[in-house]
Amino acid sequence: MSLEVTKKGTQKPTPPTADRNGNGVAALQCMSTNNRLRLNPNTEHKPESYEGLQLEFSPLLFSSLERYLPPPMLSHSRDSKLHYMRDIILRYSPEGERTRAQMQREYRQKIISHYQPLHKELYTMNASNFLAPSFVKAINENREESFRRIMTEPSQGVFTFEMLQPHFCELLLSEVENFEKWVHETKFRIMRPNTMNKFGAVLDDFGLETMLDKLMEDFIRPISKVFFSDVGGSTLDSHHGFVVEYGIDRDIELGFHVDDSEVTLNVCLGKQFTGGDLFFRGVRCDNHVNTETQEDEVLDYSHVPGRAVLHRGRHRHGARATTTGHRVNLLLWCRSSVFRELRKYQKDLLSWCGECHREKKERQRISIATTKQELLKEEGKAAT
Fold it and tell me: Which segments constitute the Fe2OG dioxygenase domain (predicted)?
């Protein structure tokens, strides 16, 4: 999903299209009136765990949707709730998407049954060995002030913080290299992370899906609930996890684009490199993705190994050329099925879109000016 930038710096992008790739987007309204979800969640309800079950969709999806069940359903057994939600999802999700999802599961299972991990400790989330102590401490305290203590916000909605320990970065780089070596030796067909990157690997494909699910659920969702609630930050229930590689003999740069995510985590793993800065140009909804960048939306960011960048998926961005060396980044696109469905029914102002805000302010300015003119006319008439 790329956007072009003219030589003069004015964005003239091709509108990105949402990539519906079988991650289980939930339906709030179905063709049948029998099974429906509530528009507002029961925040006091503690959902069941659906881990360990043979499901077509992510277990986190069902846990997230359970809060949206009609009140009478909440006291039913887990199996009853599961069938109720599954019926909704299956009727909503097109058959083509379900077929692609099934093919993806079979593809992953084929890899996992043949690939031998190099560092098995990577496949289970171990916060004390993987994550920076300051980051773990802030998550455990789970307060906005704790998050802000470890973060900087160089531009509105873009947060940076120390996240990964060097040892974890080294292990993950080594594991990716081992997987790529295995792919080359076995001549196995590798699926690249997205349509824009020709180098890199999908981490979920060779067994790291569960670890990344835990990373999203236990560490990214608490932050997103505070800072990105307007785009479903509290209901993140699926992810797409991958690494991208940049260098002279790899991808050089990344065009101006938006992500297929509600919240994006981007962490530099290394190695030695120059260049490769990220540039951000404001958050936009589908209707305004082509609009020009305002001066206060411009941000350039230089990568530091182990340091994370967290932002809305709709925050327009790109990567400048990596001029020397080899840069590898971990990306986690975090998604919310509930938010994606609710967005279809949202007709008024999108609070997270910068251009929606500017249009609203302009309408208010014009309304105030018109009212003043009418009042002045009335006063003039009264005086005469």
Answer: 237-336
Who's near 311: CB < 8 A, 6+ residues apart?
Answer: 157, 158, 159, 263, 264, 266, 280, 317
Sort strands 273-275 and 322-335 into parallel, antiparallel or unpaired. Answer: antiparallel
> Residue 191 pLDDT more than 80?
yes
Which residues lie closer than 8 Å to 290 by C-beta, 6 or more apart? 3, 11, 12, 13, 15
Task: Give all domains of the chain, ordered by start, each with its CATH number.
Answer: 61-92 (no CATH), 126-343 (2.60.120.620)
Q: Which DSSP string do the residues of 228-275 spell out, in sequence order?
A: -GGGTGGG--EEEEEEEEEETTSB--EEEE--SSSEEEEEEEE-SEEE
Extended beta strands in 118-184, E state: 152-155, 158-162
Give the contacts of 297 (CB within 8 A, at least 6 positions apart): 155, 280, 281, 282, 354
Distance CA 221, CA 241 (A): 15
Beta-bridged to residue 333, according to DSSP, are 240, 264
C-alpha to C-alpha distance for 201 and 108, rounded to whole angstroms: 12
Per-residue pLDDT tens over the stretch 269-290 = 998 899 999 999 999 888 888 8
- DSSP letters along 192-223, please? PSSSS-SSEEEGGGGT-HHHHHHHIIIIIHHH
User: Which phi and psi angles does 38 have, rounded to 5°?
Assistant: -75, 155
Q: Are 41 and 67 in contact, with CB atoms under 8 Å apart?
A: yes
Q: Which residue has the tokens 């196995």?
A: 188
Q: Which residues of 72-90 are buried (b: 16+ CB within 10 A; e: fewer)?
A: ebeeeeeeebbebbbebbe
Q: What is the pLDDT of residue 8?
A: 34
One-letter-per-residue 3-state SS of 282-333: EECCHHHCCCCCCHHHEEEECCCCCEEEEEECCEEEEECCEEEEEEEEEEEE
Q: In angstroms, rounded to a whole number, what is the distance separating the alpha carbons of residues 156 and 90?
A: 38
The mean pLDDT of 346-352, rounded to a whole number, is 61
Tell me the pTM.
0.74
Locus of tokens 């993705």: 289
